[in-house]
Amino acid sequence: WGGVLATRTLGHPMQFQLKRVILFCNDIEKVAEFYEQKLGLKRVLTTNSLIDFDTGVAHLALHKAKGNVANQTKIAFYCEEVSKVRAEMIAKGIEMGKDPGDGPGVKTCDGKDPEGNVFQLSNRP
Length: 125
Known about the structure:
- By secondary structure, the chain is of the alpha+beta class.
- It has helices at about 30-40, 80-90; strands at about 5-10, 10-15, 15-25, 40-45, 50-55, 60-65, 70-80, 95, 110, 120.
- Strands 4-5-6-3-7-10-9-8 form an 8-stranded mixed β-sheet, covered by helices on one side. Strands 1-2 form a two-stranded antiparallel sheet.
- The protein is globular, with a radius of gyration of 15 Å.
């Protein structure tokens, strides 16, 4: 990614931090049960369409698939200013999705690597 700056702390540049791996699931409760009971992961958030596990370094997020599209994976990188980093990536020729804009709340933007694998920029800690 050519050193695109994701966050800046006390004036020092910092590289992207992998914060989340997202699995798209048709039955998130069934998959969540597997990760809880078989692997011992601790559930930290549950909504109608998302179950999040804290694995220590990064989170494992189960997202409800739209349609029958299970077995898809997305990696999410943390950055404080999603719109700004998105613009830097576009300037480097990286295919990026819609600008989430400024303002409060969780901001995300998907991009694609040269083979079409999806990654996400997110300000979700």
